[in-house]
Amino acid sequence: MSLVEEQLGGLMRKSLAGDAGAYRVLLGELGVLLHRYFARRLGRDSADVEDLVQDTLMAVHAKRATYDVDQPFTVWIHAIARYKLIDHARYRRIRVTVPLEEDEAVFASDEVEAAMARRDLDAMLDTLPAQPRTLIREVKIEGRSIAETAEKTGLSEAAVKVGVHRGLKALAARFGGAKHP
């Protein structure tokens, strides 16, 4: 866990527990990091940088109850800032580019995309009943064999195969995947 994650995540957890002082410090720290994030992408002289910082801080304030304390805070704030930047670019009809050598994460490490994908995958799997969700996690995510999963769950190998297949079919139907024959 990075120092930034530890510090900001701790402040966020304290603020959610009712510590107003921690919340003021959090917003101040975020303001600095957000300013740097948007300035890097829009240019230091852009008048829009401060507007984006304020919009993002307002979004954090409005959505702070949606933050899951078991997830990395920097991933959550990075997603909000990124969506604000995308909305701004769409509104202004501009294309934002960043040189590859400057494309280092301001808020989080290289794990941002993986953590966001993991969060999305967990949300999708949570829509399934417990058994197919467990079977899909064991076989498709953890990489266990059908035999290992059958032994671990007490199901037959055929039941594991059917459970995984039906679970994936339900996910595909629910989230617009390809139709299975």
- Helix/strand structural class: mainly alpha
Sheet-strand content, in percent, reads under 5%
Number of β-strand runs? 0
Principal-axes geometry comes out as elongated
Quick one: CATH superfamily of the largest domain?
RNA polymerase sigma factor, region 2, helix turn helix motif
Taken together, the total number of domains comes to: 2
The quaternary structure here is single chain
CATH topology of the largest domain: Rna Polymerase Sigma Factor, Chain: A
| Main beta-sheet annotation | none
Task: Quote the distance from N terminus to C terminus.
Answer: 44 Å
- By CATH reckoning, the class of the largest domain would read Mainly Alpha
Radius of gyration: 21 Å
Judging by the overall fold, what is the CATH architecture of the largest domain? Answer: Orthogonal Bundle
| Average residue pLDDT | 83
Task: Name the helix and strand elements from N-terminus to C-terminus, one letter apiece.
Answer: HHHHHHHH
Number of helices: 8
